[in-house]
Write a structure and sequence with these properties.
The chain has 374 residues and is α+β, with helices and mostly antiparallel strands. The chain is built from ten helices and 16 strands. Helix 9 crosses helix 10. Keywords: Cytoplasm, Hydrolase, Membrane, Nucleus, Phosphoprotein, Transmembrane, Transmembrane helix.
Length: 374
């Protein structure tokens, strides 16, 4: 996957970053040369032909688009995000001094009925770029990218240890998830210049680098990823007492490195795992507590401190606990859950016929089956 990040700034002009990495179907060296040539030609969004709005998020003020560029042959997916209003006093004053107001007659204050509200429309500003847009371009985009970013309903699922072993783990092992792009980072074959800290130890070491979701200009919304060197740890489910040295080492050294380079105190960082993760090589997220981003909430995020504490109390905690999380309806894993639900429903019905009883398991399964049918 290649993503081009285009950031607009009234004082710095357009800046572009290109990141090359492997997707699930790794390309050959010749393909990389061809792809890089295409990326060089992608220097403007002006030639983008929109074919579909995949999804939008009003809270994050972002939208995913699918379409094509005039200069290249493959499809692309674009993420447009509105950047925060700058906290710089001079820039805010420029915004106020160059903004037009329009009456908003539909909005009257309940507490001040005689007050008149005004609405600010950026489109009628006097030639000053006040609201900046960050564009992330994924090119070439496959049908998997489109499916990933297209809106789809989510469901809460409860993954018991038994379900993990019989449903989830076999699914993960049956899929060909390429992690070559991760190994390229660990082996210094790509993104070397972005690494801000590295511990080369094969067991407790890791690399720390900024996540591409952060443009590095907003110090109050930092986002880092720590990727472990060990290649045999897929996710939270694999962690036990033997991994405590890794977790403690990663926490201490990452927080120190972030504070030293960016002057962000540990108390201002949210440090967590995702479950399910977006890729199955152990990694840890470091985000600002002042930044609300997808995946930082309780149904997906597991705080590193809590993980360490749970394992200290019980060495095989994450092999025995039931983990609750959300699954999107188009994910292949969700289809495995649906099939399992139907089988369990049939088996439970047979149990009811034999025992002439209605166990709690049946009620749970029946509720889940009804949700699947909605």
């Amino acid at each position: 996957m290649a993503s081009v990040v285009d950031e607009s700034s009234s004082e710095e002009g357009n800046r572009k970053k290109i990141k090359l990495s492997h997707e699930e179907n790794a390309s050959t060296d010749a393909d990389h040369t061809l792809d890089l040539s295409a990326h060089i030609r992608l220097n403007s969004l002006g030639g983008f032909q929109l074919s579909e709005i995949l999804s939008e998020n009003s809270s994050s003020k972002s939208v995913f688009l699918e379409g094509t560029f005039d200069k290249v042959s493959h499809k692309a997916v674009i993420l447009l995000e509105k950047l925060p209003i700058p906290k710089d006093a001079a820039k805010v004053e420029k915004l106020l001094n160059n903004a037009d107001l329009a009456l908003n007659l539909k909005s009257k204050s309940e507490f001040e009925p005689n007050a008149v509200d005004y609405a600010f429309y950026p489109a009628v500003c006097q030639g000053v770029p006040l609201i900046h847009i960050k564009a992330t371009v994924i090119y070439p985009a496959t049908s998997k990218h489109a499916e990933k970013y297209k809106y789809q309903p989510s469901f809460i699922v409860h993954e018991t240890p038994g379900i993990y072993k019989s449903i989830v783990l076999p699914h993960l092992e049956s899929q060909k998830f390429s992690l070559q792009w991760v190994y390229n980072i660990l082996e210094h074959k790509s993104e070397t210049e972005r690494i801000i800290f590295e511990d080369p130890d094969p067991d407790v070491g890791f690399v720390l680098l900024p996540d591409l979701k952060w443009d590095e200009s907003e110090k109050n919304s930092v986002y880092f990823i720590a990727i472990c060197n060990a290649k045999n740890i897929k996710s939270l489910r694999d962690l036990d007492e033997s991994h405590l040295p890794l977790l403690r080492n990663l926490k201490i050294k990452s927080l120190d490195a972030i504070y030293e380079k960016y002057n962000v105190a540990p108390q201002k960082l949210r440090v967590y795992f995702h479950y399910q993760p977006s890729y199955y090589h152990l990694h840890v997220h470091f985000t600002s507590v002042n930044r609300e981003i997808p995946g930082c909430h309780f149904e997906k995020a597991h705080l590193l401190d809590n993980v360490i504490n749970n394992i200290e109390m019980h060495s095989t905690y994450y092999q025995e606990v039931t983990l609750t999380y959300t699954l999107k309806s188009r994910r292949k894993l969700f289809k495995f859950w649906t099939n399992w639900s139907e089988v369990l429903f049939i088996l439970t019905m047979q149990f009811i016929v034999i025992s002439n009883n209605t166990p709690f398991l049946y009620l749970l399964c029946n509720d889940y089956k009804e949700d699947m049918e909605k």
